[in-house]
Design brief:
The chain is mostly helical. The protein has five helices and no strands.
């Protein structure tokens, strides 16, 4: 997690102007994309009639993409290009938050069929 946070700090520090110019658009897109991915994972798992616990796992796995890998690729192959790094950094932060909130929510409720 510390390495991931380090990548986020580097991405934002190197592209602070880009972040300020486009943050409101990027945040909206990131949240919408994540919500659609979580809903799609849950719907697909429900249609497949997997167990309630597997449905939760599939939902989390579908909704939380690997933004750490995205940041490594952006810095390694694209020299940390501004917009890409900012999007991946925000993506990673939001996915961590939404995943933790959903896991906490589900941990307090029994899984029902």
């Amino acid at each position: 997690m510390l390495i991931f946070l380090g990548f986020i700090v580097l991405a934002l520090a190197a592209n602070w102007g880009v972040f300020l110019d486009y943050a409101r658009y990027v945040i909206l897109i990131v949240i919408l994309h994540n919500a659609l991915a979580l809903a799609g994972g849950y719907a697909t798992a429900s249609l497949a009639r997997v167990s309630p616990y597997d449905r939760r796992a599939i939902t989390i796995e579908t909704g939380i993409q690997n933004s750490g890998l995205g940041l490594v690729l952006i810095f390694g192959f694209f020299h940390g290009m501004g917009g890409m790094a900012v999007i991946a950094a925000l993506w990673g932060v939001w996915h961590a938050i939404s995943g933790l909130v959903l896991a906490q929510f589900w941990s307090r409720r029994a899984a029902v069929r």
